[in-house]
């Protein structure tokens, strides 16, 4: 499953984006879900958008954590999600 994210403030480092999502998962669902597999496939040159790949079973949980993140230094918001990567463009 693929999720296209808007990132604020801009961040071109995929590790920081993944860490921010994992922190949001830990805050909302606990440490067990903080280790959910998240693969950052793309970060645009300006660092304002990224695409992540996640397990389809975890997608709704990850989207909920992104929306509910309150103390993250990097804020992400879902732009679009799909099980078909080319449809995100």
UniProtKB/TrEMBL annotation:
<dbReference type="InterPro" id="IPR038085">
    <property type="entry name" value="Rnp2-like_sf"/>
</dbReference>
<dbReference type="Pfam" id="PF20976">
    <property type="entry name" value="Pop8"/>
</dbReference>
<dbReference type="GO" id="GO:1902555">
    <property type="term" value="C:endoribonuclease complex"/>
</dbReference>
<protein>
    <recommendedName>
        <fullName>Ribonucleases P/MRP subunit Pop8-like domain-containing protein</fullName>
    </recommendedName>
</protein>
<dbReference type="GO" id="GO:0008033">
    <property type="term" value="P:tRNA processing"/>
</dbReference>
<feature type="domain" description="Ribonucleases P/MRP subunit Pop8-like">
    <location>
        <begin position="12"/>
        <end position="67"/>
    </location>
</feature>
<keyword id="KW-0819">tRNA processing</keyword>
<dbReference type="InterPro" id="IPR049128">
    <property type="entry name" value="Pop8-like_dom"/>
</dbReference>
<dbReference type="GO" id="GO:1990904">
    <property type="term" value="C:ribonucleoprotein complex"/>
</dbReference>
């Amino acid at each position: 499953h693929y999720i296209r994210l808007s990132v604020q403030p801009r961040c071109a480092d995929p590790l920081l984006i993944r860490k921010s999502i994992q922190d949001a998962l830990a805050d909302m669902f606990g440490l067990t879900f903080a280790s959910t597999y998240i693969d950052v496939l793309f970060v645009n040159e300006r660092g304002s958008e990224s695409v992540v790949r996640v397990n389809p079973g975890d997608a709704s949980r990850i989207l909920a954590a992104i929306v509910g993140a309150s103390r993250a230094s990097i804020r992400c918001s879902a732009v679009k999600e799909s099980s078909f990567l080319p449809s995100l463009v």
